[in-house]
Amino acid sequence: MQLTHKDILDIASLSVAEIELILDTAVQMREISSRPIKKVPTLRGKTVVHFFYEPSTRTKTSFDVAAKRLSADSLSLSKSTSSLVKGETLIDTARNLDAMAPDAIVIRHSSAGAPHLIARHVRCGVINAGDGRHAHPSQALLDMLTVRQHKGRLDGLRIAIIGDITHSRVARSNCEGFVKMGSEVVLCGPPTMIPKGVESYGVSVTGDVDEAIAGADVVMLLRIQKERQQAGLFPSEREYARVYGLNRRRLKMAGSDVLIMHPGPVNRGVELAPEVADGPFSVILDQVANGVAVRMALLLLVAGGTRNENQD
Amino acid sequence: MRIRISGGRIIDPGRIDTVGDVVVENGKIRSVGPPDSEAADQVIDARNCLVVPGLIDVHVHLREPGHEYKETIASGAAAAVAGGFTAVCAMPNTNPVNDNAQVTRFILDRARAAGLARVYPVASITRGLKGEQLSEFAELKEAGAVAFSDDGRPVVGSRMMRRAMEYARGFDMPIVSHCEELDLAGDGVMNEGVVATRLGLAGIPNAAESIMVMRDIALAELTGARLHVCHVSCAESIAAIRAAKDRGVRVTAETAPHYFTLTEEAVAEYDTRAKMNPPLRTAADRQAVRQALADGTLDAIATDHAPHSILEKEVEFDQAANGIIGLETALPLSLRLVADGVLPLTDLIAKLTVTPARVFGLPCGLIPGGAADITVIDPQRTWTVDAERFASLSRNCPFDGWPVTGRAVLTMVDGRIVYEAPEA
């Protein structure tokens, strides 16, 4: 089986079977990372372009490691090293990259929809590594993989996502992914951080953290960005932590085998108390490890195999 | 030169609705209605067609001077007559801004040279559209400006807007307001709601428009000035305008075909052709706009024709320029309102002719002795919108490829045939 589309742009355009294919492939990839020699020749001779228009440390590193473990030739472009600073349009940059015949372009961009724009103008597969507030499909896939690894399933689980939903591409992609896979998703945060109409994902919304956490199998916290305070979305980190932060007391409301997740980087003491971040329920580092596995799977499915040969 | 437009349904709202002939002689209308049997140099067969006063679009951007790669006065005028419009009001956000008589005269000279549609310049309220200092209204009016507007941006300061209205009242000129509360609109790039949330785009709430509509109505009430509200897109603005009209405030308002045709759903897949300001709203707002056209709250249909090249449109959605072109699609989209039973044909024609003319103080009508600005419409003609064939220099049209019904088949300005549609 292979993917229907050449690109991975968002979770919405993946079917349940495709998500399962990616997760199953990632499980195989995870094994590679546990070997003494962490490299396979699968993507030898394939070229992967990492095009990061917006600063990123962990996602970029994760894709980089993934490409190297599959023996792909990878190169990185950032906003400052590309011709975008010289006034070249995104489409022109993409077409120029495409002319060099890469097998996949991994793109991070601050504008929602930018990967979709690029995908329409290049022949190779495009993997969205995060576009504005819109989507972060590889993050949602690694989150689903982490939950499945610990719970053995995704359907019937209760997933609480707490924080700034409005500005979070992670939350959007996770809403789409977990709902698609049969989980129950409840969103929680101050009303200033809950976007209008978010219920249309098939999720519920509450302003009460205790209610969100009650009986949850997974509690996922989102990073609270300091600049949102200046924008008037919340009065202070102190108040945010008090009303919406996850601490040991609140954690008791959750299921006894709850998973604590966070896409990172963590604001310790704001959305997540340090003792919880480092506590026994935290699977935050598993998320990072699974990130490499999921990205290996995505590169393999997009850049590898017969798909590209058929297209040529 | 004697031209007979023969056998059409003649509609001049408020004056005449009959089947008959219109005779044009030496650029003027000679007779309207009675069958004419005298010899004519040219006979136009208008059977099964509508013969109406030349359509007037009180809100277009012709981009000249300054952005001639998007549109020129000549290309915009060509697009106008191709869409059945014999007159357009050109907004002042050119470069340089139309805030002085030289620019006003330049626009009129260019329009005269093009010899197609009439172009009525709208001059800016404030110099450079900066909202700080009034433009010279008297001199601009003498030069030919018909109204004042900072369209594209609001006059942010309430005190400045008050002074503009008071001062304009001295010249009996309308203040044409782009109503937007910029601070509330923030970094929004489309309507706030489900679609924006799903696409991860920052939203603009209806209140960003209606707050400013309410402020400007309050200022019109305070000053007694004539206020015309541009491109109304949402229910809250309409409610405010309706209430103001009920208590006798001198306020008029327009909407654009996209607001009664499309909704925010058109943005799906990040289609920058559906990006404009104010943004496309919800189905409920679209319904409110239609209702307001029917009950008279909205006086006019104007296109907000806003040409942009692919340089501004084939980019990331949040970077893309606002606006769509509208001159060559407005008529069939408006005729849908009649087909949908929203309002009678005569009322629709009025919103494209005599009503906006009254608001902007422009001549309009099929009046013996008056200028022969006439549009002949085949209301049954079906055709497919093809942006590549537009007279406009720009292609930013979300209706490209749409099958539509109704088209201007002949456009006449001063008795000259300035446009004839190709045979079906």
Task: Write a compact overview of the structure shown.
The complex is a heterodimer of chains A (312) and B (424). Chain A is α/β, with parallel strands linked by helices and 312 residues long.
Notes on the protein architecture:
- The complex is a heterodimer of chains A (312) and B (424).
- Chain A is 39% helix and 14% strand.
- Chain A is an alpha/beta fold.
- In chain A, the strands form 2 sheets. A 5-stranded parallel β-sheet of chain A has the order 7-6-5-8-9.
- In chain A, helix 6 links the parallel strand 5 and strand 6.
- Chain A starts with 15 loop residues before the first helix and ends with a helix.
- The C terminus of chain A is likely disordered.
- In chain B, helix 4 crosses helix 7.
- Chain B has 14 helices and 18 strands.
- Chain B folds into 2 domains: 100 residues, Urease, subunit C, domain 1, CATH 2.30.40; 307 residues, TIM Barrel (Alpha-Beta Barrel), CATH 3.20.20.140.
- Chain B starts with a strand and ends with a strand.
- In chain B, a hairpin with a 2-residue loop joins strand 17 and strand 18.
- Chain B is an alpha/beta fold.
- In chain B, strands 1, 2, 3, 4, 5, 16, 17 and 18 form an 8-stranded mixed β-sheet that branches.
- The chains are: A alpha/beta (312), B alpha/beta (424).
